[in-house]
Write a structure and sequence with these properties.
By secondary structure, the protein is of the alpha+beta class. The protein contains 23 helices and 24 strands. Among the domains are: 2-37; 286-643, DD-peptidase/beta-lactamase superfamily (Beta-lactamase). Strands 2, 3, 4, 5, 10, 19 and 20 form a 7-stranded mixed sheet that branches. Strands 13-12-11-24-23-22 form a 6-stranded antiparallel sheet, with helices on both faces. Helix 4 crosses helix 8 and helix 16 (362-371) packs antiparallel against helix 22. The radius of gyration is 35 Å and the shape is elongated.
Length: 645
């Protein structure tokens, strides 16, 4: 009896499951079957998201181009494709492709069999000639006289047929673009098998070349990334971001294409409309950006009029908000033709090129002194020179008298930093002493520097950022050089993160160009601007650094770099380096570079700033014309910022 009850229960469950699948899940499985058995194709490219500045000004937009596409359908043959090409030729005006004519001739003239002799066919049967050999002979024997017998219509059909069969068979082929309204309407109305119409999209740069290199390029999927993009659902003929912002935010900027269902007669039915990509809203203020570029160009031109500026061609500047890491302007300009005052954008050098930056690192050096208790607030020495064993004498740029941790920054004392470097080695300075430095002494500096963002990647939202160069040699001379920014190199964006961290009381943010990403009015992604690190110093020391920079801009070496009415803080830097002037691999000429980092207002920073002028003049002792380009640029842009708030 129990056995029969069990069978009844199992049978009831079975019937219940069938009922559930047929009634409740019917539509789901019908859709799954349809998805597996139906044939779908996509339309043309969808417009990418726009790139917009912080105030809503559209920087990068899209221009639609009327385009016709062909998708090879299952079971279609050569005759059908020639028929499609003929229908298109009656609508489209195409430029004849001479290379396509021989292929067409073979297809339409019995595969060119009459071009092969009986003897050659016999050799083929005897396997002394291959089918490849026969095709080569046929093509060689299609003379101009034979091709001239083709009508203009046949030549157009040949060209279109060739376009329909280029590349991989499963790729969507672009047949023609920039169609007239009449051509476009006729193709839509004709409903030709495998043919779809749509808009392909080109980028439009509303402010010309401004920031164009930072926006990046778009184009076809690179060969080495095909598998990666195919796994993401892309088609091989899709347009993708290839560099910088277009690449970094590709997943958000890409649009969704129209989806078509292939009918039983191989015509197409639109079942899902595509949609635009998301808009990328930048922290950039395009008005500040253009003003900054104008200042760079103007001051590069003026500087080139001064003596000893033989190798000076470019300058850089970044403006941003220290409390968030937002970048407001991001500019690099290179003079490529002095006579015509022609410039090119080198904005991406801000993350790719690094330089010795001189005394702007002294806040980080003083921090190292605080951290390892070599100095404390108010520690005072009389500015002098350092002479180590087998190392040339090293001094400040002039005798500065008594200096403490504040005035060592404000007056830019090298001697004060050298004493910190010597203290890190647990030595007390004596004339002509041997310092016996170790890699650990260098790491004390570099660990502190990295807390501020110097000597490491900043994490800016641009691909392929490069860090500065960290020296790998160890010596007493180089340790002293490191303390005054004359050994390791840093990128301008590292300097921006560094000075913003000082301004922000030791809280470090990633420099960011993205403010938010939106789909119409809906926010898809919001930048949270979180703190990524905090400098390991008490606030009293961090306040001291800001006070020192304030002193530098009111009565020190950075006076008037930012006008006093904006309550500024800043630090200048001068560095020497060698460059290769004749491309022979030998660093043969010593040049001087200058830099400035600052922020304002000092007590509640709204803006932080970096200005750099590499190789501003040829370094000849007592024989150079000083160029104050960094002062003119920093003063000009801060005036613009505060006057246009």
């Amino acid at each position: 009896m129990k056995k029969y009850v069990f069978i009844v229960i199992v049978f009831a469950l079975f019937l219940g499951r069938i009922f559930y699948l047929n009634i409740n899940e019917h539509n789901k499985y019908v859709d799954m079957l349809k998805e597996k058995t139906n044939n779908y194709v996509t339309g043309g490219s969808a417009p990418r998201g726009r790139i917009i500045d912080r105030n809503g000004k559209i920087l990068v937009d899209n221009k639609g181009i009327k385009t016709v596409f062909y998708t090879k359908l299952k079971g279609i043959n050569t005759k059908d494709e020639l028929d499609i090409a003929k229908k298109l030729s009656n609508i489209l005006a195409v430029e004849i492709d001479e290379d396509s004519l021989k292929t067409y001739y073979l297809i339409t003239h019995n595969n060119g069999d009459d071009l092969i002799t009986d003897n050659e066919y016999q050799l083929f049967k005897e396997r002394k000639l291959t089918s490849k050999d026969l095709k080569k002979l046929k093509v060689e024997r299609i003379t101009d006289d034979l091709l001239n017998k083709l009508t203009e219509e046949e030549k157009e059909i040949a060209t279109i047929y060739s376009l329909m069969n280029k590349g991989y068979s499963y790729e969507k082929k672009e047949i023609a673009s920039n169609l007239s309204n009449e051509e476009y309407s006729k193709i839509v109305d004709s409903n030709i098998k495998g043919i779809t119409t749509g808009l392909t999209w080109e980028r439009v740069y509303n402010y010309g070349d401004v920031l164009k290199d930072v926006f990046g390029k778009i184009g076809s999927i690179p060969e080495e990334k095909k598998d990666e993009y195919l796994k993401k659902g892309y088609e091989l003929n899709d347009t993708v971001g290839l560099s910088y912002l277009e690449s970094y935010y590709e997943d958000y900027l890409k649009g969704e294409k129209d989806l078509y269902e292939v009918n039983s007669d191989n015509t197409l039915k639109l079942i899902k409309e595509g949609k635009n990509g998301n808009d990328l809203i930048l922290s950039i203020d395009i008005d500040v950006q253009m003003k900054l570029e104008e200042l760079l160009k103007e001051n590069i031109i003026n500087a080139k009029k001064r003596a000893n500026t033989n190798y000076f061609t470019e300058s850089y500047s970044i403006v941003g908000k220290p409390k968030t890491g937002e970048i407001i302007a991001f500019a690099g300009q290179k003079l490529v033709d002095v006579k015509e005052a022609k410039f090119e954008n080198v904005n991406t050098n801000l993350i790719n090129n690094s330089y010795t930056v001189g005394s702007v690192v002294k806040m980080a050096t003083i921090s190292t002194g605080y951290k390892y208790k070599v100095i404390d607030i108010g520690s005072t020495v009389k500015d002098s020179c350092i002479k180590l064993y087998q190392v040339p004498i090293k001094c400040s740029y002039k005798s500065l008298g008594n200096v403490n941790d504040l005035t060592a920054i404000a007056k830019s004392s090298n001697y004060y930093q050298f004493k910190i470097a010597i203290g890190l080695t647990n030595n007390v300075y004596k004339y002509n002493m041997k310092l016996n430095t170790t890699p650990a002494d260098f790491e004390k500096f570099r660990n502190t520097f990295r807390e501020y963002g110097l000597g490491m990647l900043t994490g800016i939202d641009l691909p392929n950022e490069k860090p500065g160069i960290t020296g790998n040699l160890t010596s007493s001379d180089l340790l002293l050089n490191l303390s005054i920014g004359q050994y390791d190199t840093y990128t301008p964006v590292e300097l921006f993160q560094y000075v913003s961290t000082v301004a922000n009381m030791g809280e470090k943010h990633k420099p960011q160009l993205m403010k938010e990403i939106k789909n119409n009015d809906s926010v898809v992604l919001q930048n949270e601007y979180s703190v990524t690190n905090r400098v390991s110093l008490d606030n009293k020391y961090l306040e001291r650094l800001k006070e020192a920079m304030h002193l530098a801009t009111t009565s020190g070496t950075a006076r008037n770099y930012i006008l006093s009415k904006y309550n500024p803080a800043g630090k200048t830097g001068t560095s020497e380096t060698f460059i290769d002037t004749n491309n022979d691999g030998v660093m043969d000429t010593k040049t001087t570079s200058i830099a400035f980092v600052g922020f304002a207002p000092y007590d509640n920073p709204e803006y932080s700033l970096v200005v750099m002028a590499p190789n501003i003049y040829v370094a000849r002792e007592y024989n150079y014309s000083k160029v104050y380009i960094t002062r003119y640029i920093s003063q000009g842009i801060t005036n613009f910022l505060f006057e246009n708030k």
